[in-house]
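Annotated sample (chain length 428).
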Amino acid sequence: MKIATEPPKTPGLSVSEAQACILGKIIPLDAEEVGLGEALGRALAEEVCANRDLPPYDVSAMDGYATRAADIGEAPKTLQIIEDIKAGDTPRFSLQPGQCARIMTGAPLPPGADTIVRLEDTRPLEHDKVEFPIPVKPGTDIRQRGESMREGEVVLQPGEEITPGTIGVLATVKRAKVKVVRKPRVAILSNGDELEALDEPFDPRKIPDSNSYALMAQTQALGIEPILLGIARDNPEELASFLRQGLEYDVLLISGGTSVGVHDHVRPTLAALGVTIHFWRVEMRPGHPVAFGTSDHALVFCLPGNPVSSMVCFEQLVLPALRRLMGHRRLFRRAIPVRLAKAVKTKQGRAEFVRATLSRDASGAYVATPAASQSSGNILSMTHADVLLVAPGRHNALNMDETAQAQLLESAIWQSTPDTELDGGFLL
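Output written by the structure step:
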Protein backbone atom coordinates (compact mmCIF):
# COMPACT_ATOMS: atom_id res chain seq x y z
CA MET A 1 0.00 0.00 0.00
CA LYS A 2 1.20 3.47 -0.86
CA ILE A 3 1.25 5.73 2.21
CA ALA A 4 0.88 9.49 1.84
CA THR A 5 3.78 11.61 3.04
CA GLU A 6 3.46 13.78 6.14
CA PRO A 7 1.72 17.07 5.29
CA PRO A 8 3.50 20.29 6.23
CA LYS A 9 2.93 21.50 9.75
CA THR A 10 0.15 24.09 9.96
CA PRO A 11 -1.40 25.93 12.89
CA GLY A 12 -4.32 24.16 14.53
CA LEU A 13 -7.91 25.33 14.57
CA SER A 14 -9.49 26.83 17.64
CA VAL A 15 -11.91 24.58 19.51
CA SER A 16 -14.85 26.60 18.19
CA GLU A 17 -13.55 26.37 14.63
CA ALA A 18 -13.05 22.62 14.96
CA GLN A 19 -16.57 22.16 16.34
CA ALA A 20 -18.02 24.25 13.51
CA CYS A 21 -16.06 22.26 10.93
CA ILE A 22 -17.33 18.95 12.29
CA LEU A 23 -20.96 19.99 12.71
CA GLY A 24 -20.95 21.51 9.23
CA LYS A 25 -20.33 18.02 7.79
CA ILE A 26 -23.22 16.36 9.65
CA ILE A 27 -26.90 15.94 9.02
CA PRO A 28 -29.05 13.80 11.33
CA LEU A 29 -29.43 10.15 10.44
CA ASP A 30 -32.61 8.65 9.01
CA ALA A 31 -35.67 7.91 11.15
CA GLU A 32 -36.95 4.66 12.57
CA GLU A 33 -40.10 3.75 14.46
CA VAL A 34 -39.76 2.40 18.00
CA GLY A 35 -42.10 1.46 20.81
CA LEU A 36 -42.67 3.96 23.57
CA GLY A 37 -40.63 1.81 25.96
CA GLU A 38 -37.57 2.18 23.73
CA ALA A 39 -37.86 5.91 23.05
CA LEU A 40 -36.27 7.44 26.18
CA GLY A 41 -33.27 9.62 25.36
CA ARG A 42 -33.90 9.59 21.62
CA ALA A 43 -34.68 12.62 19.44
CA LEU A 44 -38.10 12.92 17.85
CA ALA A 45 -38.15 12.68 14.06
CA GLU A 46 -41.73 13.82 13.61
CA GLU A 47 -44.27 16.37 14.73
CA VAL A 48 -46.70 15.12 17.38
CA CYS A 49 -50.20 16.58 17.73
CA ALA A 50 -52.81 16.28 20.47
CA ASN A 51 -55.64 13.88 19.66
CA ARG A 52 -58.15 15.49 22.06
CA ASP A 53 -58.75 18.45 24.31
CA LEU A 54 -57.14 17.94 27.69
CA PRO A 55 -58.84 18.12 30.05
CA PRO A 56 -61.78 17.07 27.88
CA TYR A 57 -64.15 19.21 29.99
CA ASP A 58 -63.93 21.72 32.83
CA VAL A 59 -62.67 19.86 35.91
CA SER A 60 -61.99 20.59 39.54
CA ALA A 61 -58.37 21.29 40.48
CA MET A 62 -59.07 20.57 44.17
CA ASP A 63 -61.08 18.36 46.49
CA GLY A 64 -63.97 20.54 47.64
CA TYR A 65 -67.35 21.80 46.48
CA ALA A 66 -68.59 22.92 43.08
CA THR A 67 -70.74 26.01 43.59
CA ARG A 68 -72.25 29.08 41.98
CA ALA A 69 -70.19 32.04 43.22
CA ALA A 70 -73.31 34.22 43.27
CA ASP A 71 -74.95 31.83 45.76
CA ILE A 72 -72.27 32.49 48.36
CA GLY A 73 -72.23 36.25 47.89
CA GLU A 74 -71.43 37.87 51.19
CA ALA A 75 -70.31 34.90 53.32
CA PRO A 76 -71.05 33.04 55.45
CA LYS A 77 -73.65 31.10 53.46
CA THR A 78 -75.08 27.59 53.77
CA LEU A 79 -75.79 25.46 50.69
CA GLN A 80 -77.42 22.07 50.11
CA ILE A 81 -75.20 19.22 48.81
CA ILE A 82 -77.06 17.46 45.98
CA GLU A 83 -74.48 14.87 44.87
CA ASP A 84 -70.92 13.56 45.11
CA ILE A 85 -68.82 13.69 41.93
CA LYS A 86 -65.64 11.63 41.57
CA ALA A 87 -63.07 11.70 38.77
CA GLY A 88 -64.56 9.71 35.91
CA ASP A 89 -68.17 10.34 36.98
CA THR A 90 -70.75 12.14 34.87
CA PRO A 91 -72.66 14.76 36.92
CA ARG A 92 -76.35 13.84 37.25
CA PHE A 93 -77.78 17.25 38.14
CA SER A 94 -77.45 20.91 37.23
CA LEU A 95 -76.83 23.23 40.16
CA GLN A 96 -79.81 25.37 41.11
CA PRO A 97 -79.74 28.39 43.44
CA GLY A 98 -78.79 27.33 46.96
CA GLN A 99 -77.18 24.04 45.83
CA CYS A 100 -73.62 22.68 45.59
CA ALA A 101 -71.92 19.37 44.77
CA ARG A 102 -69.14 17.64 46.67
CA ILE A 103 -66.37 17.12 44.09
CA MET A 104 -62.99 15.40 43.88
CA THR A 105 -59.85 16.55 42.07
CA GLY A 106 -60.13 15.83 38.33
CA ALA A 107 -63.90 15.38 38.39
CA PRO A 108 -66.06 17.20 35.81
CA LEU A 109 -67.98 20.27 36.94
CA PRO A 110 -71.74 19.92 37.05
CA PRO A 111 -73.76 22.28 34.80
CA GLY A 112 -74.33 25.61 36.50
CA ALA A 113 -71.15 25.52 38.62
CA ASP A 114 -68.64 28.33 38.07
CA THR A 115 -66.18 27.95 40.97
CA ILE A 116 -64.62 25.44 43.33
CA VAL A 117 -64.30 25.99 47.07
CA ARG A 118 -61.56 23.93 48.68
CA LEU A 119 -62.65 21.45 51.32
CA GLU A 120 -60.48 23.11 53.98
CA ASP A 121 -62.29 26.43 53.37
CA THR A 122 -65.70 25.02 54.36
CA ARG A 123 -67.49 23.78 57.48
CA PRO A 124 -69.71 20.68 57.17
CA LEU A 125 -73.16 20.79 58.78
CA GLU A 126 -75.82 18.17 59.34
CA HIS A 127 -78.37 16.97 56.76
CA ASP A 128 -76.10 17.28 53.69
CA LYS A 129 -75.45 20.94 54.18
CA VAL A 130 -72.17 22.84 54.19
CA GLU A 131 -71.24 26.33 55.30
CA PHE A 132 -69.02 28.63 53.26
CA PRO A 133 -67.45 31.13 55.69
CA ILE A 134 -65.55 33.26 53.14
CA PRO A 135 -66.47 34.84 49.77
CA VAL A 136 -65.35 33.21 46.50
CA LYS A 137 -64.66 34.41 42.96
CA PRO A 138 -65.93 32.76 39.77
CA GLY A 139 -63.36 30.48 38.08
CA THR A 140 -61.42 29.64 41.25
CA ASP A 141 -59.62 26.24 41.13
CA ILE A 142 -61.17 25.18 37.82
CA ARG A 143 -59.04 23.65 35.07
CA GLN A 144 -60.68 24.75 31.84
CA ARG A 145 -61.34 22.39 28.95
CA GLY A 146 -58.27 22.25 26.69
CA GLU A 147 -56.10 24.05 29.24
CA SER A 148 -53.21 21.56 28.82
CA MET A 149 -53.63 20.83 25.10
CA ARG A 150 -56.13 21.31 22.29
CA GLU A 151 -57.08 18.69 19.71
CA GLY A 152 -54.86 19.12 16.65
CA GLU A 153 -52.35 21.34 18.48
CA VAL A 154 -48.66 20.54 17.91
CA VAL A 155 -47.37 19.47 21.32
CA LEU A 156 -43.91 18.09 20.38
CA GLN A 157 -41.52 19.16 17.63
CA PRO A 158 -38.89 17.17 15.68
CA GLY A 159 -35.51 17.32 17.41
CA GLU A 160 -36.93 17.36 20.94
CA GLU A 161 -35.18 14.94 23.28
CA ILE A 162 -37.54 12.33 24.68
CA THR A 163 -37.46 12.72 28.46
CA PRO A 164 -39.70 11.03 31.05
CA GLY A 165 -42.02 14.03 30.72
CA THR A 166 -42.08 13.59 26.94
CA ILE A 167 -42.96 9.92 27.40
CA GLY A 168 -45.92 11.06 29.50
CA VAL A 169 -47.06 13.40 26.70
CA LEU A 170 -46.70 10.66 24.06
CA ALA A 171 -48.76 8.30 26.20
CA THR A 172 -51.35 11.05 26.69
CA VAL A 173 -51.82 11.38 22.93
CA LYS A 174 -51.90 7.57 22.56
CA ARG A 175 -48.64 7.16 20.64
CA ALA A 176 -47.65 3.55 21.30
CA LYS A 177 -44.99 3.94 18.60
CA VAL A 178 -43.03 7.03 17.62
CA LYS A 179 -40.55 8.01 14.93
CA VAL A 180 -37.09 8.84 16.24
CA VAL A 181 -33.70 9.46 14.66
CA ARG A 182 -31.78 6.22 14.61
CA LYS A 183 -28.66 5.78 16.70
CA PRO A 184 -25.31 5.95 14.89
CA ARG A 185 -23.27 2.79 14.57
CA VAL A 186 -19.96 3.57 16.30
CA ALA A 187 -16.71 1.59 16.12
CA ILE A 188 -13.73 2.15 18.44
CA LEU A 189 -10.14 1.21 17.59
CA SER A 190 -6.95 1.60 19.61
CA ASN A 191 -3.55 1.77 17.97
CA GLY A 192 -0.05 1.01 19.25
CA ASP A 193 2.45 -1.79 19.84
CA GLU A 194 2.73 -0.73 23.46
CA LEU A 195 -0.89 -1.55 24.33
CA GLU A 196 -2.06 -4.53 26.33
CA ALA A 197 -5.61 -5.74 25.69
CA LEU A 198 -7.94 -6.40 28.59
CA ASP A 199 -7.97 -10.15 27.87
CA GLU A 200 -4.20 -10.49 27.31
CA PRO A 201 -1.77 -11.77 29.96
CA PHE A 202 -0.29 -9.17 32.31
CA ASP A 203 2.95 -7.67 30.99
CA PRO A 204 4.60 -4.97 33.15
CA ARG A 205 6.26 -3.51 30.04
CA LYS A 206 2.91 -2.84 28.35
CA ILE A 207 0.34 -0.06 28.72
CA PRO A 208 -3.22 -1.24 29.45
CA ASP A 209 -5.71 -0.25 26.74
CA SER A 210 -7.94 1.96 28.87
CA ASN A 211 -8.91 4.28 26.03
CA SER A 212 -11.14 1.79 24.22
CA TYR A 213 -13.20 1.27 27.35
CA ALA A 214 -13.33 4.91 28.46
CA LEU A 215 -14.51 5.90 24.96
CA MET A 216 -16.96 3.00 25.03
CA ALA A 217 -18.43 4.29 28.29
CA GLN A 218 -18.62 7.89 27.06
CA THR A 219 -20.49 6.61 24.00
CA GLN A 220 -22.78 4.40 26.07
CA ALA A 221 -23.65 7.41 28.24
CA LEU A 222 -25.29 8.86 25.12
CA GLY A 223 -27.43 5.75 24.69
CA ILE A 224 -25.25 4.23 21.95
CA GLU A 225 -23.73 0.73 22.13
CA PRO A 226 -20.41 0.89 20.24
CA ILE A 227 -18.36 -1.96 18.79
CA LEU A 228 -14.79 -2.43 20.03
CA LEU A 229 -12.59 -3.43 17.10
CA GLY A 230 -9.57 -4.15 19.30
CA ILE A 231 -5.96 -3.00 18.99
CA ALA A 232 -4.20 -2.34 15.69
CA ARG A 233 -0.44 -2.67 15.98
CA ASP A 234 2.02 -0.21 14.43
CA ASN A 235 2.00 -1.91 11.06
CA PRO A 236 0.41 -0.09 8.09
CA GLU A 237 -1.04 -3.26 6.52
CA GLU A 238 -2.61 -4.49 9.78
CA LEU A 239 -3.82 -0.99 10.57
CA ALA A 240 -5.40 -0.67 7.12
CA SER A 241 -7.30 -3.92 7.65
CA PHE A 242 -8.76 -2.62 10.93
CA LEU A 243 -9.56 0.77 9.40
CA ARG A 244 -11.46 -0.82 6.52
CA GLN A 245 -13.68 -2.52 9.09
CA GLY A 246 -14.16 0.71 11.01
CA LEU A 247 -15.09 2.70 7.92
CA GLU A 248 -18.17 0.49 7.48
CA TYR A 249 -19.69 2.23 10.52
CA ASP A 250 -21.27 5.67 10.79
CA VAL A 251 -18.54 6.86 13.16
CA LEU A 252 -15.03 5.55 13.73
CA LEU A 253 -13.11 6.60 16.84
CA ILE A 254 -9.39 5.88 16.69
CA SER A 255 -7.21 6.33 19.75
CA GLY A 256 -3.47 6.82 19.33
CA GLY A 257 -1.13 6.97 16.35
CA THR A 258 -2.18 10.43 15.16
CA SER A 259 0.89 12.47 16.08
CA VAL A 260 4.08 13.00 14.05
CA GLY A 261 6.23 10.04 15.13
CA VAL A 262 7.70 7.72 12.50
CA HIS A 263 5.35 4.96 13.73
CA ASP A 264 2.22 7.12 13.76
CA HIS A 265 0.54 5.66 10.67
CA VAL A 266 -3.13 6.45 11.27
CA ARG A 267 -3.59 9.64 9.27
CA PRO A 268 -1.58 8.62 6.19
CA THR A 269 -3.26 5.21 6.15
CA LEU A 270 -6.69 6.82 6.34
CA ALA A 271 -5.75 9.11 3.48
CA ALA A 272 -4.70 6.09 1.41
CA LEU A 273 -8.13 4.56 2.09
CA GLY A 274 -9.87 7.62 0.68
CA VAL A 275 -10.62 9.49 3.92
CA THR A 276 -10.47 13.28 3.60
CA ILE A 277 -8.80 14.82 6.66
CA HIS A 278 -10.45 18.19 7.31
CA PHE A 279 -8.16 19.25 10.14
CA TRP A 280 -5.31 18.02 12.23
CA ARG A 281 -4.36 19.76 15.46
CA VAL A 282 -6.70 21.85 17.58
CA GLU A 283 -5.44 24.61 19.84
CA MET A 284 -6.55 22.90 23.04
CA ARG A 285 -4.91 21.28 26.01
CA PRO A 286 -5.09 18.39 26.56
CA GLY A 287 -5.82 17.03 23.12
CA HIS A 288 -3.76 19.07 20.65
CA PRO A 289 -2.95 16.23 18.18
CA VAL A 290 -6.55 15.44 17.18
CA ALA A 291 -7.81 14.99 13.64
CA PHE A 292 -11.18 14.75 11.94
CA GLY A 293 -11.99 13.29 8.56
CA THR A 294 -14.81 11.92 6.45
CA SER A 295 -15.22 9.09 3.97
CA ASP A 296 -18.21 8.56 1.70
CA HIS A 297 -20.44 7.64 4.66
CA ALA A 298 -18.33 7.71 7.84
CA LEU A 299 -17.10 10.32 10.28
CA VAL A 300 -13.58 9.60 11.51
CA PHE A 301 -12.10 11.02 14.71
CA CYS A 302 -8.40 10.46 15.36
CA LEU A 303 -7.96 11.01 19.09
CA PRO A 304 -4.74 11.28 21.09
CA GLY A 305 -3.32 8.23 22.83
CA ASN A 306 -3.06 9.80 26.29
CA PRO A 307 -6.19 8.74 28.22
CA VAL A 308 -7.28 12.18 29.46
CA SER A 309 -6.59 13.80 26.09
CA SER A 310 -8.74 11.19 24.41
CA MET A 311 -11.63 11.70 26.84
CA VAL A 312 -11.45 15.51 26.70
CA CYS A 313 -11.44 15.45 22.89
CA PHE A 314 -14.51 13.22 23.02
CA GLU A 315 -16.27 15.75 25.27
CA GLN A 316 -15.46 18.74 23.07
CA LEU A 317 -15.61 17.30 19.55
CA VAL A 318 -17.14 13.81 19.38
CA LEU A 319 -20.04 14.24 21.81
CA PRO A 320 -21.68 17.17 19.94
CA ALA A 321 -21.18 15.32 16.65
CA LEU A 322 -22.90 12.18 17.94
CA ARG A 323 -25.78 14.19 19.34
CA ARG A 324 -26.20 16.01 16.02
CA LEU A 325 -26.24 12.65 14.20
CA MET A 326 -28.94 11.49 16.63
CA GLY A 327 -31.09 14.50 15.74
CA HIS A 328 -30.75 16.41 19.01
CA ARG A 329 -30.88 20.19 19.21
CA ARG A 330 -28.89 20.51 22.43
CA LEU A 331 -25.40 19.38 21.51
CA PHE A 332 -23.07 20.62 24.24
CA ARG A 333 -22.50 20.12 27.95
CA ARG A 334 -24.05 22.74 30.21
CA ALA A 335 -21.58 25.25 31.65
CA ILE A 336 -21.96 27.11 34.94
CA PRO A 337 -19.99 29.95 36.56
CA VAL A 338 -17.69 28.85 39.40
CA ARG A 339 -15.23 30.52 41.73
CA LEU A 340 -11.70 29.13 41.68
CA ALA A 341 -10.39 27.73 44.96
CA LYS A 342 -6.81 28.19 43.72
CA ALA A 343 -4.95 29.62 40.74
CA VAL A 344 -4.44 27.62 37.56
CA LYS A 345 -1.49 28.12 35.24
CA THR A 346 -2.41 27.99 31.56
CA LYS A 347 -0.70 28.40 28.21
CA GLN A 348 -1.67 31.49 26.28
CA GLY A 349 -3.07 30.74 22.83
CA ARG A 350 -4.66 27.39 23.68
CA ALA A 351 -7.99 26.69 25.34
CA GLU A 352 -7.35 24.53 28.37
CA PHE A 353 -9.76 22.11 30.00
CA VAL A 354 -8.84 21.71 33.63
CA ARG A 355 -10.23 18.82 35.65
CA ALA A 356 -11.79 20.01 38.91
CA THR A 357 -14.18 19.04 41.68
CA LEU A 358 -17.15 21.11 42.85
CA SER A 359 -18.15 22.27 46.31
CA ARG A 360 -20.17 25.17 47.72
CA ASP A 361 -19.13 28.11 49.82
CA ALA A 362 -21.12 29.64 52.68
CA SER A 363 -23.25 31.67 50.27
CA GLY A 364 -24.18 28.57 48.26
CA ALA A 365 -22.08 29.54 45.23
CA TYR A 366 -20.10 26.84 43.45
CA VAL A 367 -16.38 26.59 44.04
CA ALA A 368 -14.09 24.59 41.74
CA THR A 369 -10.91 22.98 43.03
CA PRO A 370 -8.53 21.91 40.24
CA ALA A 371 -7.08 18.42 40.48
CA ALA A 372 -3.53 18.34 41.81
CA SER A 373 -2.31 16.56 38.68
CA GLN A 374 -3.34 17.82 35.26
CA SER A 375 -1.18 15.25 33.44
CA SER A 376 -2.90 13.98 30.29
CA GLY A 377 -1.89 10.46 31.30
CA ASN A 378 -3.52 10.59 34.75
CA ILE A 379 -6.85 8.83 34.19
CA LEU A 380 -7.67 9.03 37.93
CA SER A 381 -8.09 12.79 37.56
CA MET A 382 -11.03 12.15 35.20
CA THR A 383 -12.54 9.65 37.61
CA HIS A 384 -12.84 12.26 40.36
CA ALA A 385 -13.65 15.29 38.18
CA ASP A 386 -17.07 16.93 38.36
CA VAL A 387 -16.29 19.59 35.76
CA LEU A 388 -13.86 20.74 33.14
CA LEU A 389 -12.83 24.31 33.90
CA VAL A 390 -12.52 26.26 30.66
CA ALA A 391 -9.51 28.55 30.34
CA PRO A 392 -9.97 30.36 26.98
CA GLY A 393 -6.25 30.88 26.38
CA ARG A 394 -6.27 34.68 26.51
CA HIS A 395 -3.98 34.75 29.56
CA ASN A 396 -1.31 32.66 31.22
CA ALA A 397 -3.34 31.90 34.35
CA LEU A 398 -6.72 31.82 36.03
CA ASN A 399 -6.37 33.49 39.42
CA MET A 400 -7.63 32.33 42.79
CA ASP A 401 -11.20 33.60 43.49
CA GLU A 402 -11.63 34.46 39.80
CA THR A 403 -14.90 33.41 38.18
CA ALA A 404 -14.58 30.88 35.38
CA GLN A 405 -16.90 28.74 33.28
CA ALA A 406 -17.06 25.02 34.03
CA GLN A 407 -18.57 22.27 31.87
CA LEU A 408 -20.55 19.78 33.91
CA LEU A 409 -19.49 16.14 33.50
CA GLU A 410 -21.69 13.09 34.07
CA SER A 411 -20.72 12.79 37.74
CA ALA A 412 -21.82 16.38 38.45
CA ILE A 413 -25.53 15.71 37.95
CA TRP A 414 -25.67 13.91 41.30
CA GLN A 415 -24.87 15.02 44.83
CA SER A 416 -24.69 13.24 48.15
CA THR A 417 -27.21 15.39 50.05
CA PRO A 418 -30.41 17.19 49.04
CA ASP A 419 -30.59 20.96 48.86
CA THR A 420 -32.54 22.15 51.91
CA GLU A 421 -32.59 25.85 51.00
CA LEU A 422 -34.30 26.15 47.63
CA ASP A 423 -33.60 29.85 47.29
CA GLY A 424 -33.40 30.17 43.54
CA GLY A 425 -29.74 29.28 43.23
CA PHE A 426 -28.47 26.92 40.54
CA LEU A 427 -29.08 23.32 41.56
CA LEU A 428 -27.20 20.34 40.23
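Annotation: The mean pLDDT is 91.
Annotation: The radius of gyration is 30 Å.
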